[in-house]
């Protein structure tokens, strides 16, 4: 967490972070990503974060997402708000009721 804070107060306009929520419960992961999103808006920075299987409430904190499939195949890149409709319209996929 200290490293994350150090990156945010630095002079770079873009920060890259890899699996910063690994080992955290979903509430802690949500808090960290939410804090990062708020800081990025305040300091006008871009942050690129790689996450493995983030819960929906964490995904919804992002402005844009990039989803990769097997072998790094690009599945989607764009606003989080349009991802669900993209997969429904392009592939007929529907989000499970439980999500």
From TrEMBL:
Q: Subcellular location, in the record's words?
A: Plastid, Chloroplast
Concerning InterPro entries, the annotation shows: ABCG_dom (IPR043926), P-loop_NTPase (IPR027417)
Chief location category: plastid
Q: Name one Pfam family in it.
A: ABC2_membrane_7
Alphabetized UniProt keyword annotations: Membrane, Transport
Gene Ontology CC terms: chloroplast
Question: ABC transporter family G domain spans which residues?
Answer: 53-97
Any single GO molecular-function term of the entry would be: ABC-type transporter activity
Q: Which SUPFAM superfamilies match?
A: P-loop containing nucleoside triphosphate hydrolases (SSF52540)
PANTHER family assigned to the protein according to its UniProt record, in alphabetical order: ATP-BINDING CASSETTE TRANSPORTER (PTHR19241)
For this entry, the protein name equals: ABC transporter family G domain-containing protein
- Look up and give the organism this protein is from: Hanusia phi
